[in-house]
Amino acid sequence: MGREAPIGVFDSGVGGLTVAREIMRQIPNERIVYFGDTARVPYGSKSRETIIKYSRQIIRFLLTENVKAIVIACNTASAFAIDVMQNEFDLPIVGVVKPGARVAAETTKNGKVGLIGTEGTIRSGVYAAFIKSFRPDVEVIGKPCPLFVPLVEEGMLHDTITDQVAERYLGTLKERKIDTLIMGCTHYPLLRSTIGRIIGEQVRLVNPAYETAQELKRVLDREHIANVQEVDSPSSMYRFYVSDAADKFKAFANSILPFDIAMTQQISIEQY
């Protein structure tokens, strides 16, 4: 696999675009093939077996695009499926959980780390396990925030309803005196200003999307597969695929990416 081969990035839907955006910013020479499983979103309430099945299908598709590495840009899939996928497929696979967990363990001073995410991510316990592997004395306080995803996807990033929902979700974590908060869902960085305002400036926010791009960069360098060629125009650097609702995905992507994407192609993921 050549250095100019793309990075495969996948998510249950649009949230993983925050990870793709960080890769574009931090490793601008790398091409990206993005897949959003918009027909089967959300992943957060589904079983481990189902998430593994979906992840396997998506990776098989991405391999047809000749990717050299894969980023699982979904916290739920990273929590449930990454170990199985790393065993089954012979290429570097990076998830979003471990990089964020490492930074949270390094950041907290009082040993109280908050975690917001989907029910599946919280229930898996994988963030707590990774954090404790780095620092055993840390207490991880999880809080599922299922309404954040639809609020983001409806474009209600700065809305009184979003503020009210955030107040209710984050109140428990404020009472527990956390000093670090992991935004453990790829949608949540789009609510960063709201979350930060409500949780308080004394709490450090950890964005796993940013940390994952940093980890990917380290992996590409270590494996000697980082692209060293000059970048082309964005339209030739990035390709986007979905399993449903291509126009809606494209509109959302254009609202958060640093450029407008020309095309999003719908594919039948079930055949992989």
Average pLDDT works out at: 94
The helix/strand order is EHEHEHEHEHHEHHEHEHHEHE
Overall geometry comes to: globular
Q: Termini separation (Å)?
A: 21 Å
CATH topology title of the largest domain = Rossmann fold
| Low-pLDDT runs | none
User: What CATH architecture label of the largest domain applies?
Assistant: 3-Layer(aba) Sandwich
Strand order of the largest sheet: 4-3-1-2-9-10
Figure out the total of helices. 12
CATH class of the largest domain: Alpha Beta
Structural class by helix and strand composition: alpha/beta
User: How helical, in percent, are the residues?
Assistant: 40-55%
Query: In this structure, how is the largest beta sheet organized?
Result: 6 strands, parallel
Task: Quickly count the domains.
Answer: 2
Number of strands: 10
Strand content: 15-25%
Cα gyration radius (Å): 18 Å
